From TrEMBL:
Name of the protein described by the UniProt record: Protein nucleotidyltransferase YdiU
Function summary: Nucleotidyltransferase involved in the post-translational modification of proteins. It can catalyze the addition of adenosine monophosphate (AMP) or uridine monophosphate (UMP) to a protein, resulting in modifications known as AMPylation and UMPylation.
Residues at the catalytic site: 230 (proton acceptor)
Source taxon at top rank: Bacteria
Reactions that this protein is recorded to catalyse: L-threonyl-[protein] + ATP = 3-O-(5'-adenylyl)-L-threonyl-[protein] + diphosphate; L-seryl-[protein] + UTP = O-(5'-uridylyl)-L-seryl-[protein] + diphosphate; L-seryl-[protein] + ATP = 3-O-(5'-adenylyl)-L-seryl-[protein] + diphosphate; L-tyrosyl-[protein] + ATP = O-(5'-adenylyl)-L-tyrosyl-[protein] + diphosphate
Taxon lineage: Bacteria, Bacillati, Actinomycetota, Actinomycetes, Mycobacteriales
Length: 395
C-alpha cells in the first residue's frame, strides 16, 4: 500500500527520517474500518502482518516532524515528534502513529512508547468529538505492541494511529520562522488548506477555523487541558487528547489536568488562550505580511484586532455562552440538537483501567455509545460527581 509524502518532499528541512522500533508481539486492538475505507486504504492489508508493520512505522518512508511550542506560556524552541511518526498521506489526510519509540526529537529520559490506556483514550474521545460535529483528528487504529512498560505501574504498551487534515500547527510555524523556513511552510499551508489566499488571508482563515472549533468546545463543556501552540492546528482540528475532560457542572474556572497547576487552560479561559496562540502565529508571519517591519506589525495588529468579533460570532452561532454543563436527558428534551451522550470522565476512566488489565468489553461498549451522541446510555448520559477528579497527559 503506497502513501503519499507531499509534506516531507516539499519541506525536507521540517522533517527527519525515522522509523518505529521493532515490537515483540504486535496485535490489532481496534481498527476504524469505515474511516480506512473512506481514505481508500485496504482494510484486509491493514489487518495483516505487513499492514501492522506499516502502521507501526516499520516500513516505507516515515518521518518525525519538527516544531516548536509555547508550553504553558514558555517557549520550547525545539519539540518535534518525540514518539511519533508521519507515515504519509492518504486521500489528503495525514496518517500518523504515536508511541512508536524514540526519535531524534525525543526528550531526555523518554522511552518514546505509549501506555494502552492513553492510546485508547485518544481513539475514543476523538471519535466522540467527530460524532459531536467538532473538527478533530480521528482514530484509525490502536495496536498493542506486546511490550510491558513502567508508568505509575507496569502496563501494556500500545500505539495509536490517527488521521488529520495535516499536522501543521502554530508551533510548526514558530519552528519555521526560527529556521528561515517560514515562506515555504506558509506556502505549503495555503496550498493544502486555503488555496488562493495570501498570507494575511491564511492568518484570517486559521483564526476563523480555530474560533469555530473552540466555540464548539465551549458549547459541549469540553476542556482541552493543554492548549499549547504546538497543539493549535492551522486546519482548526482538535488535536492531542492527553489530559482533556468534559465539564459536568458549569463553572468557568473548571480544569482537570494534573500539569495545568495554575489553571491557565481552564474552561472559561480557552477563547482567550486561542487569541494568545494566534498572536504567536501572527508574529511568525510578520516577514510575509510586508517587507517593511512597521507596516507588517500594523497589518498583524489590525488583523489580530478582528479576533474578538470573530470569537464572539462563533460563540453566538453555537449558543455557547449559554452552556450550563448540563448535558443530560432533561437538557436534551429542552433542545432537540443537544447531545445526550458524551465520553464522561468517570466511566471512561473506569473503562480504561479495565482495558489496561485486559478486559476491553466495557471500553467497546462506551466506544459504540459515543458514536451516537443523541442516544441514551445509562453511564454516559447523566452527570457524575467530579470533585477531585484529575486527568493525566499519559506521556
Amino acid at each position: 500500500m503506497k502513501l503519499e509524502h507531499t509534506y516531507a518532499h516539499a519541506l525536507p528541512e521540517m522533517v527527519k527520517s525515522a522509523s518505529g522500533e521493532e515490537q515483540p508481539d504486535p496485535s490489532l486492538v481496534v481498527l476504524n474500518e469505515p474511516l480506512a475505507e473512506e481514505l481508500g486504504l485496504d482494510v484486509d492489508f491493514l489487518k495483516s502482518a505487513d499492514g501492522l508493520k506499516l502502521l507501526l512505522g516499520q516500513s516505507g518512508d516515515t518521518y518525525a516532524q519538527a516544531y516548536s511550542g509555547h508550553q504553558f506560556g514558555q517557549l520550547s524552541p525545539v519539540l518535534g515528534d518525540g514518539r511519533a511518526l508521519l507515515l504519509g498521506e492518504a486521500n489528503g489526510q495525514d496518517i500518523h502513529a504515536k508511541g512508536i519509540g524514540r526519535t531524534q526529537f525525543s526528550r531526555p529520559g523518554s522511552d518514546g512508547r505509549g501506555a494502552i490506556g492513553p492510546m485508547l483514550r485518544e481513539y475514543l474521545v476523538s471519535e466522540a468529538m467527530h460524532a459531536l460535529g467538532v473538527p478533530t483528528t480521528r482514530g484509525l487504529a490502536v495496536i498493542g505492541t506486546g511490550r510491558k512498560i513502567q508508568r505509575d505501574r507496569v502496563v501494556p504498551a500500545a500505539v495509536v494511529v490517527r488521521t488529520a487534515a495535516s499536522h501543521l500547527r502554530v508551533g510548526t510555524m514558530q519552528y519555521a520562522a526560527m529556521t528561515d523556513q517560514i515562506r515555504p511552510v506558509a506556502d505549503y499551508a495555503i496550498q493544502r488548506h486555503y488555496p488562493g489566499e495570501d498570507y494575511q488571508g491564511l492568518f484570517r482563515q486559521v483564526m476563523q477555523a480555530q474560533a469555530r472549533t473552540v466555540a464548539k468546545w465551549q458549547r459541549l463543556g469540553f476542556i482541552h487541558g493543554v492548549m499549547n501552540t504546538d497543539n493549535t492546528t492551522l486546519s482548526g482540528e482538535t488535536i492531542d487528547y492527553g489530559p482533556c475532560a468534559f465539564m459536568e457542572e458549569f463553572d468557568e474556572d473548571t480544569f482537570f489536568s494534573s500539569i495545568d497547576t495554575q489553571g491557565r487552560y481552564r474552561y472559561g479561559n480557552q477563547p482567550n488562550i486561542l487569541g494568545w496562540n494566534l498572536a504567536r502565529l501572527a508574529e511568525t508571519l510578520l516577514p510575509l505580511f510586508d517587507e517593511d517591519p512597521n507596516t507588517a506589525v500594523d497589518i498583524a495588529n489590525s488583523t489580530m484586532g478582528e479576533f474578538t468579533d470573530v470569537m464572539n460570532a462563533a460563540l453566538d452561532s453555537e449558543d455557547a455562552q449559554k452552556v450550563d454543563g448540563d448535558i443530560t436527558v432533561e437538557n436534551h428534551k429542552r433542545d432537540p440538537n443537544a447531545p445526550v451522550t458524551i465520553p464522561r470522565n468517570e466511566p471512561l476512566d473506569r473503562a480504561l483501567k479495565l482495558a489496561t488489565d485486559g478486559d476491553l468489553s466495557y471500553y467497546f461498549e462506551l466506544l459504540e455509545a459515543v458514536k451516537k451522541p443523541h442516544e441514551y446510555h445509562p453511564d454516559l448520559s447523566q452527570p457524575g460527581d467530579l470533585e477531585g477528579f484529575i486527568t493525566f497527559c499519559g506521556t
